[in-house]
């Protein structure tokens, strides 16, 4: 349910409406616009259906929300959300390029890659400190030490950092040492983890689950937003299908679909989607043309020696070349790089 407030509604009137909603056992979410403000009501709509909210001073209308993703949906917020990541705007006209190694390995290597991707035009450094791997014998990441290396790379380059969290108990490390907390595909429906990151204002990059539908993905975002954190970005990283020629099937149709259903920024990860470095550039270009707000790309100085996903990582020179091509495509579709 959405309560539309009159253009001249006072703070006292707004507070009264929100107090009334709370009295009914529901949760109000105030969204202030340039022309008017609205209050999204989260909870069982039946509790408010027969309440005379239109009689309250300052209320103009009461509108039901049909989609189950109330806070993440276009019905709640028409304008695109722009997430501020330490000064980098994600979701606006300028594309956000997140690049770096799949896994953090050594401090010098991490700093070196950060310098390379920044010189090529990347705006955010990606790197995995905690790695969820299919095999328990595969490299699991350096943990908190890896976050320290990312912090050193940020200090050297000024690039904000995105890294994946696995355990709610590590939240304090991520709040202190990262600028974006990534929820990986395997944890998209780890609801306790979603609620934990939702309790803070730290930007969250929510990856699509291995076989998740658009509805399931948006409902996962709703878990985060219902706890108060509105700084959510969605990341398409390929879904599992019958095709075995490449790692996953990149669902680029999800980009315009999400743009229609949700106001949240949409990022595309062509590296994990394909698992092959030669396919990263073509799909990165296609993602920008499809309307993505940014890309998540793996870059490594020496992929053949990488401890994780070297086969899908671009060398810095290839990444630099891709960035030049992306700039042309961005301009063609009314975006900037």
Task: Write structural notes for this entry.
- This protein has 337 residues and is α/β, with parallel strands linked by helices.
- The protein has 2 domains: 2-63, 2-Layer Sandwich (Alpha-Beta Plaits); 83-332, Aldolase class I (TIM Barrel, Alpha-Beta Barrel), CATH 3.20.20.70.
- 34% of the residues lie in helices and 18% in strands.
- The chain is built from 10 helices and 14 strands.
- The chain has helices spanning 11-23, 107-120, 144-157, 171-177, 191-198, 214-226, 254-261, 270-274, 277-290, 316-332; strands spanning 2-5, 27-32, 37-42, 59-63, 83-85, 88-90, 96-100, 124-126, 161-164, 180-183, 204-207, 232-236, 266-268, 294-298.
- The strands form 3 sheets. An 8-stranded parallel β-barrel has the order 7-8-9-10-11-12-13-14, surrounded by 7 helices. Strands 2-3-1-4 form a 4-stranded antiparallel beta sheet, with helices on one face.
- Strand 10, helix 5 (191-198) and strand 11 (204-207) form a beta-alpha-beta unit.
- Helix 2 (107-120) runs parallel beside helix 10.
- The longest helix is centred in the last third of the chain and has 17 residues, at 316-332.
- It is elongated and about 70 Å long.
- The mean pLDDT is 93.
Task: List the topology elements.
Layout: E1 2-5, H1 11-23, E2 27-32, E3 37-42, E4 59-63, E5 83-85, E6 88-90, E7 96-100, H2 107-120, E8 124-126, H3 144-157, E9 161-164, H4 171-177, E10 180-183, H5 191-198, E11 204-207, H6 214-226, E12 232-236, H7 254-261, E13 266-268, H8 270-274, H9 277-290, E14 294-298, H10 316-332
Helix pairs in contact: 2-3, 2-10, 5-6, 9-10
